[in-house]
Amino acid sequence: MSDIPAPILDTFNRPFRDLRISVTDRCNFRCTYCMPAEIYGEKYTFLAKKDLLSFEEITRVARISAELGVRKIRLTGGEPLVRQQIETLVAQLAQIDGIDDLAMTTNAYLLPQKADALKAAGLQRITVSLDSLDNDVFRRMNGNRADVSDVLAGLEAAEQAGFAPIKINMVVQRGVNDQSVVDMARFGKERGYIVRFIEYMDVGTLNGWRLDEVVPASEIVQMIHADMPLEPLDSNYHGEVAQRYRYADGPGEIGLITSVTQPFCGSCTRLRLSPEGRMFTCLFGVEGTDLREPLRAGASEAEIAQIMTGMWQQRTDRYSELRSSLTKPREKVEMFHIGG
Ligand code: SAM
Ligand code: SF4
Ligand code: SF4
């Protein structure tokens, strides 16, 4: 791309910079906080293949996004590695001019089979989700689908394939895996993985989220700091969602994703594409805007670009900032209930 386009700005002057593509609604895990097995069981109907955007359709949306200013693409899901031949999509996305970061978030179960192909196709970075190194805790959290050793094999495969540095996502839930935080930090420090501790979020409506299950990032930092002293780091770039810390006594860093206690909507530059082609300007969006219909009806590049631009320019989302003000009245009610 010869000219860098002027960024498209939303109503809060946030530029359109990142595209997060969910390539499937299916997953081989049933994490209790994401796809609880009681709800996503045998009777649950996932999207039919014809309803998923094809790789060509996804690539077209990604190319138009790059022309509109997007620089980063992340593949996610569901579990991105359960989409057949995902490396073919990676290869197509890697060809797009202007994209300087192509990453994937995965549960790593299929990485031993896929890591080399992903690297060869042009994937640049991998984030692996792992919620505990304690096998019982991990199995309980992933719906009894995998052992810690399966994920470690995936991490090993990713390293062997040449991915570095690898990040690990750990969602911290009070009373479930908060006792695993320090072990995970130590594991990352020893192996050179950047562990990102994620505050448990109220995404969707089916995981029974409760505010008292959120372990605030400040508490996570204290837990680790008591064992392995930490120093704050500056952010790498504007819009980086993780608060970063490094170890005072040597190499290694961690990140905190503070979506609940310190929302970062002000620098949120992400658009999400669902597997069936709906675009969401917020993780907590409700309806989304359908792109599949115009894509399949033969809309031109300019028409698709216009739909995307219009949607971004109207964007007003800041759910996490509003959530703080919404949860306070609820806390007050409880205070009143217990008598203060
Ligand atoms: N299946 C892949 C994986 O688990 O890495 C990619 C999709 S998953 C939805 C992406 C990330 O969202 C994972 O790191 C997962 O732990 C995180 N996540 C899912 N539900 C969450 C919740 N309620 N709160 C915070 N993070 C959550
Ligand atoms: Fe959700 Fe990822 Fe767990 Fe699958 S592996 S249930 S998509 S968090
Ligand atoms: Fe972005 Fe919505 Fe999350 Fe705020 S709540 S950071 S706008 S995705």
H and E order: EHEHEHEHHEHEHEEEEEEHHH
CATH uppermost class: Alpha Beta
- Spans of at least 5 consecutive residues with low confidence: 328-340
CATH topology: TIM Barrel
- The percentage of residues in β strands lies in 15-25%
Spatial order of strands in the largest sheet: 7-8-9-6-5-4-3-2-1-10-11-12
Which kinds of small molecule does this entry bind, naming each only once? S-adenosylmethionine, iron/sulfur cluster
| Integer count of domains | 1
The helix tally amounts to 10
Q: Helical residue percent?
A: 25-40%
Cα-atom radius of gyration? 20 Å
Q: Roughly what is the average pLDDT, rounded to an integer?
A: 91
User: Could you say which structural class the secondary elements and strand pairing correspond to?
Assistant: alpha/beta
Provide an overview of this structure.
The protein has helices spanning 55-67, 86-94, 111-121, 135-141, 148-161, 181-191, 217-227, 292-296, 301-313, 319-338, and strands spanning 18-22, 72-76, 101-106, 125-129, 167-172, 194-199, 230-233, 242-247, 253-257, 270-273, 278-280, 289-290. The chain has a single domain, classed as TIM Barrel, CATH 3.20.20. A hairpin with an 8-residue loop joins strand 11 and strand 12. The chain has 340 residues and is an alpha/beta fold. The radius of gyration is 20 Å and the shape is globular. It has a twelve-stranded mixed sheet with strand order 7-8-9-6-5-4-3-2-1-10-11-12. It has ten helices and twelve strands. The structure holds S-adenosylmethionine (SAM) and iron/sulfur cluster (SF4) (2 copies). One iron/sulfur cluster (SF4) binds next to loops.
